[in-house]
Amino acid sequence: MFRSRVLLFFSGVCLNDWKILFDKELLQQCFKSVMNRKRALISDTFKVNKRRVGNEKQFGAVNNGEAGPLDVKATLQDLMTLFPRKLFNDALPQIVLKHQLYSIHNDRTQVDRQLSDLREQGELLMFQLGFDAEAFGLVFAADYKAKVLAGEEGRGTRGTVDKFLEKVLPSCKDLSFNKEKMLKEFLFTDSEITQLVKSGVLTVRDAGSWWLSIPNSGRFTKYLIQGRKAVLGMVKKSKYNEVLKAELEERQTNSQVKFQIKYHIHDIIGAELVECIPTTSGTVLRCVDY
């Protein structure tokens, strides 16, 4: 009986001869070999599990160390695909909020640095949106110029706007301009400044200074604010003021939400109106109390 059990245990591993069963040294070696194989399998299993846990990503987070260098321009282009061009009859350039980038990249310093580089190179423009001191819109310069020129077609302000786009836009690194700079550096007259305000490329900041602005963007700001409130309301009405991000993305929206809901989700995460909590079921969005 003992011999049969030993043979069954080591069958196919290292014993093919009945006589070997009586060699104690060989038995010990074979037993040791089997145990080593078991240990190796257990070790490999735990290594695989550790790698999987380490590679899990929280929504809105990018593993910059392993996924390659951070590419803010590519992220901007991806976010801009969520912008509803048709809603505005394709009259507005695609607008992304600066803080929406923070919903995707954790390293805010790197994001800000790359945004600064893109602005220095004349590729990107940044705008103060007005409804919040921390709300900045980002638009590619080429898209902005094309939409502004299309809107100026046949208007009396076209010549002044052309001058503005040629002189100011290529080196535009400011959010606003004072009167001295407009008159002495860019050589605009008071009358021309008035025309620029009328056309919408400038909006009054205070006496003697103007914000760079996006013509006809008032409706965008209105829809953004009301959509943000509606999506936040969905989260607040959920149990414990929290909801799975994946579930929220699939929710049916009411008439208050004009944009894709993912656009608003990036907004509320980046603006830190909700916090992201990783769970076994996925990322949970929870309202932040102030």
Describe the structure.
This protein has 290 residues and is α+β, with helices and mostly antiparallel strands. The protein folds into 3 domains: 2-55; 72-214, no CATH class; 219-287, Arc Repressor Mutant, subunit A, CATH 1.10.10. It contains 12 helices and 9 strands. The strands form 3 sheets. Strands 1-3-2 form a 3-stranded antiparallel sheet. The chain has a 3-stranded antiparallel sheet with strand order 4-6-5. Helix 10 crosses helix 12. The radius of gyration is 31 Å and the shape is elongated. Mean pLDDT is 83; it is low at 5-10, 12-22 and 38-66.
Layout of helices and strands, plus pairs?
Elements (H helix, E strand, L loop, with lengths): L1 H9 L13 H32 L16 H9 L15 E2 H5 L5 H13 L3 E5 L7 E5 H11 L6 H10 L8 E3 H7 L4 H10 L2 E5 L2 E4 L5 H20 L4 E3 H5 L11 H10 L3 E6 L2 E6 L3
Antiparallel strand pairs: 1-3, 2-3, 4-6, 5-6, 7-9, 8-9
Helix pairs in contact: 10-12
Organism: Salvelinus namaycush
InterPro entries: STK19-like (IPR018865)
Family: Belongs to the STK19 family.
Provide a quick synopsis of the model.
With 290 residues, the chain is α+β, with helices and mostly antiparallel strands. The chain is built from twelve helices and nine strands. One of its GO terms (biological process) is positive regulation of Ras protein signal transduction.
For the secondary structure, the number of strands is 9
Number of domains: 3
The strands making up the biggest β-sheet line up spatially as 1-3-2
* Overall body shape: elongated
What structural class do helix, strand and pairing data support? alpha+beta
Low-confidence stretches: 5-10, 12-22, 38-66
The percentage of residues in β strands lies in 5-15%
Distance from first to last alpha carbon: 75 Å
Average pLDDT, to the nearest integer? 83
Pfam families: Stk19 (PF10494)
Organism: Salvelinus namaycush (Lake trout)
InterPro entries: STK19-like (IPR018865)
Family: Belongs to the STK19 family.
